[in-house]
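Dear Dr. L.,

I hope this message finds you well. Following up on our conversation about the binding site, I have prepared a predicted three-dimensional model of the protein together with glutamic acid. For your records, I am including the exact sequence and ligand specification that went into the calculation, followed by the structure tokens. Please feel free to forward this to your student if that is useful.
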Amino acid sequence: MSQIRTRFAPSPTGYLHIGSLRTALFNYLWAKKNNGQFLLRIEDTDQARLVEGAQENLIKILQLFGLNFDNHEPMVQSTRTKIYQEFAQKLVAESKAYYCFCSSERLDDLRKTQTEKKLVPKYDGHCRNLSQEEVSAKLQAGEKAVIRFKMPENQTVEMHDEVYGDIKVKTEDLDDFVLLKSDNFPTYHLANIIDDHEMEISHVIRADEWLPSLPKHILLYEAFGWPQPTFVHLPLLLNPDRSKLSKRQGDVAVEDFVKKGYLKEAILNYVALLGWNPKDEREFFTLEELVANFSLEHINKTGAIFDIQKLNWFNSQYIRKVFYATADEVIYGKKIEPHTIEPGNLMIKLKNKNILELAQSFIPNDISLDLKNKIIKIFSSRLNNLAELAEVASFVWELPAYDKAMLIFKKSDLEKTKTGLNLTLELLNQTEEIAWQEENLKQLLSDLVAQNNLTAGDVFWPIRVSLSGREQSPSPTEILEVLGKEESLKRIQVAVDKLK
Ligand code: GLU
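The resulting structure of the complex is given below.
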């Protein structure tokens, strides 16, 4: 079998849509699984939609995710306009395409009349039968022209898609679509087919919004006499209400997720499961594991719901693993083996400190690095994304105002709370700095509870509230360790004074 070659062919719009990341990923996976090549092509022939820096941005983000392409330089369509023109003219010479001089006003009117008559708008073939002399004369006179495909009459186009199966379309339902625009730039259809042919693409894997274009593409392959690649159209991505995933309902730009501290491993893992399933219970996959497990048969037809809750869940699982590993390795200098998440066999090797640095960036600058790292460690098991640190950890650097009633646990009372806090204050005051460690503090306070005939609610609850001003937080002893002795005692004293 000849080599498997796939391509990712984005139009540079300035950001990478989460659905495009999935397209890129599936193309990458299929190529790598088959020891083939994954190629990048920039489809930038729509001059009206060009965005400065979009191409560089795109390449950067693909590289960030490890989706490295095998062509050293991407193929860029805007540099190939001459090639497209020549191929379009070749089709004209073979009477498979023709020049059309219709003005946009005429086409607008046509569309309007057809819509009014409830017809599907379609070019009416006005220029289809111009004589060669007429065409030459018009071209010589400098009239603006496009080149249209001459749709064969009364034919059935038969297509096969790996996901959607066999599809048939009658040519009378198709239009004499434009191949070359009046600015001499190709349309998507023309450039796409020529490039896939020249790049020797074996599998076209793309979003199913392109499925309606498939008959045109098949006809173009036939017109050129070229072999067709295998087509794989990926199911639509949907909002939870089953509408098409769009910017309006929230983030869709991959860059925004990255900025918010979603880990690329988590994003990639989640995106892989949008429309593909491994046919077992496994949920966690590294990129390498995806390559090994990916298959086209397990791509679903039905739309895949992009569920931010599920992404949050994946991300929180990854953050947890990453920071339990990095905190031990980076902060405490322990050598650790790569961790394993259940179920599945996820191994995140954290040789790099990038994620730690990213997490640090969400904590105010005037906080010491040591304190930042301690904060990250105690919060890492409770974050949907790293950006949340700025909010959930803020009580560390600024104790919020709270109502004194909050200090009393619902199964406790004022007297017991006071007793608990006073005893705590006394005990912690006597605890040496050197013994100020989470495990040790937990033991001391548990003993205090037992020896004084109190409950955990009488002691741990008011400590939590006095240290954090919140009802939900990491464990009180974790906060004690992070805040340190001096600050902790200060805050507990404030609570004791409130209750006087
Ligand atoms: N440029 C198209 C896009 O932005 C590519 C479609 C295809 O892969 O054929 O999605």
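In brief: Residues 327-352 have pLDDT under 50 and may be disordered.

With kind regards,
A. P.
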